[in-house]
TrEMBL record:
<dbReference type="Pfam" id="PF02954">
    <property type="entry name" value="HTH_8"/>
</dbReference>
<dbReference type="InterPro" id="IPR025944">
    <property type="entry name" value="Sigma_54_int_dom_CS"/>
</dbReference>
<dbReference type="InterPro" id="IPR025662">
    <property type="entry name" value="Sigma_54_int_dom_ATP-bd_1"/>
</dbReference>
<dbReference type="InterPro" id="IPR027417">
    <property type="entry name" value="P-loop_NTPase"/>
</dbReference>
<dbReference type="InterPro" id="IPR002197">
    <property type="entry name" value="HTH_Fis"/>
</dbReference>
<dbReference type="GO" id="GO:0006355">
    <property type="term" value="P:regulation of DNA-templated transcription"/>
</dbReference>
<dbReference type="Pfam" id="PF00072">
    <property type="entry name" value="Response_reg"/>
</dbReference>
<dbReference type="Pfam" id="PF00158">
    <property type="entry name" value="Sigma54_activat"/>
</dbReference>
<dbReference type="InterPro" id="IPR025943">
    <property type="entry name" value="Sigma_54_int_dom_ATP-bd_2"/>
</dbReference>
<keyword id="KW-0805">Transcription regulation</keyword>
<dbReference type="Pfam" id="PF25601">
    <property type="entry name" value="AAA_lid_14"/>
</dbReference>
<dbReference type="InterPro" id="IPR002078">
    <property type="entry name" value="Sigma_54_int"/>
</dbReference>
<keyword id="KW-0804">Transcription</keyword>
<feature type="domain" description="Sigma-54 factor interaction">
    <location>
        <begin position="140"/>
        <end position="365"/>
    </location>
</feature>
<feature type="coiled-coil region">
    <location>
        <begin position="421"/>
        <end position="448"/>
    </location>
</feature>
<protein>
    <submittedName>
        <fullName>Transcriptional regulator</fullName>
    </submittedName>
</protein>
<keyword id="KW-0067">ATP-binding</keyword>
Amino acid sequence: MTSILIIDDEVEVGNFLSHLFTSKGYKVRVVNSKKEFDAIDFDHHQFQGAMIDLKLPDANGLALLKHVKRRQPHCKVIIMTGYSTIKTAVEAMKLGASDYIEKPFDDIDLLEKQVDDLLVANGTSNEQRILDLATNVGLIVGHNEAMRQVIQTAYKVAGKHVNVLIGGETGTGKEVFARFIHQASQRCYESFIGVNCGALSESLLESELFGHEKGAFTGATQKRKGLFEIASKGTLFLDEIAEASTSIQVKLLRVLETREFMRVGGEQPLHTNARLLAATNEDLQEAVQQKKFREDLFYRLNVVHLEIPPLRDRKEDIPLLIEHFLKRYPSMEVSFSDGALEMLQSYEWPGNIRELSNYITRIVTFADSGHVNITADHLPFAKQRSVTLKKRTANDHTETPGTGMDNFIEKWRDDALSFYSKKEVINLEEVLAQLKQLESQLGKALVLQTLETTHGNRKEAAKRLQISMRKLRYLLNEKRNTE
């Protein structure tokens, strides 16, 4: 017989749950205090499921969870929590809890379904479902334990109507991760819509998010729905949320608090049920302290925080990622020698998965035939960058960006002097144009080199170069400079 352990200091709640699940054929044991919990002989009483209240007067619910999972690892645990402790419930899932449910129990049918599904679910099939969903959206689970853990937590919270903040360095795949959460949720048949908050001006982003009425501004020739309206039953993904202006942050806060918004130029409030996922490669807590990001919005977004590990911390997954990227080119047969894979795994990948993807694309693009065998000798770029980065990492990180570029500048100077010394007539405009081109190349090279030293942290790179994030993206040719 399936046995369930109920841990709740409220006697009425314990009696209700005992009656509910006993009537369904389960064997139920209820404890109302830590003293009663300590009296349980876990060696002789096996529990298939447990429901643990996080708020106990004489015990920490997380400590009891750890004890249960340590003594009986296969026991499925549901955390009982109030809304104010949802973040703690998410921490509990990271510690091994399978699910959580909010108190008071407004929907008894949902409570029964959660427990039934949990107790009859097969662990292997659940793992297979995660792998299938991840494969469908292009997310590689891999072998790295930290990555597997964050994916499992994402899967557990996907079915909850809570906001999720996804953190991670540039290029770690935050949008793909957001798509996984959407596909694992009950909204998977609805729209998933994403927008980059750093790629649009304030006015354009406002119109994009909330829509506008005809005549609201110059060029608004017709009414237009915003993303909150379009994705009302689905998922809205806000990338680079840290770059949203203060005005946009205020409007986002109102939507999250009231689920209502107005189109630009509109007078009637509209309702949205969109599930919000946000992502950032910056430290939002630091941004809050620096008064660059609203504290109340941060707490609204950060109900659940999931941090994607950088590629340098999950190098064992690089062969799987390469295999995944090569599937884009079915007509090519590309293989890597052990030495080549070892070299690729020794590189730090400051641009993370995006950099690896681009690297594989370059290899395939310049391949001469349908079958290519890549050896370590074919990877001088990766080898050079790896050695350079390791030297910098060994130093104190105060190295001036651009060190080591003297030879490049010297060579350009010598070539230019040699070329123009042979000419009697010099086109000044041509010289100035070449200087401008050199300036652009040096700017981009300095940014890339600084990104290496900061392991892809763009905010830190911009700080070291004493430029804004917009300027940094401009130098990388990612967007038009508006400064």
